TrEMBL record:
Co-factor requirement: Fe(2+)
Residues binding Fe cation: C102, H144, H148
List of catalytic residues: E145
The protein's name in its UniProt record: Peptide deformylase
Protein species of origin: Phaeocystidibacter marisrubri
The protein's Enzyme Commission number: 3.5.1.88
Amino acid sequence: MILPIVAYGDPVLKKRGEDLEKNDPELPKLIEDMYETMYNAHGVGLAAPQVGKSLRLFVVDASGFVEEGDEEYETLKDFKKAFINPEILNEEGEEWAFSEGCLSIPDIHEDVYRHETLRIRYFDENWVEHEEELSGLAARVVQHEYDHIEGVLFVEHLSPLRRRMIKGKLQNISKGKIKVDYRMKFPKK
């Protein structure tokens, strides 16, 4: 089922997500719905807070993020995962800029600086524990989604000046004054 994506300004996007319980009977359906919602909105990642659930869960599928022949194609072509109760253990390497966007903040893309490499521990949808090192675009996608479960939005990484410059656009999004080709849920007035 395609879920509405929560728009900028909704308090759920600013809350730290709660850990999930291993035997949660609703989890498999939620993961399935999150993938369907992400694909419908042409995203490469989606965190539970973006569908109104304050949980430590996000899904990614970066297979369409780069084209065959691109430097990171081999790394990303099968990069489809669910991250349950993840914990970033370490971030290192030089910070580099990349233009990020967000399904909860449509039509805004800004350069965000993030570390090149990270080490993360998480459970997959079968509750198998993993510890992995990711770098490049894979690390960036995970860092962006991880921020969501920490209650942080990519625009918070921008300079105060840049944030002032996009303030009007952000206010319009929170008021529902935006056109997108996917379902959104706007904050109540």
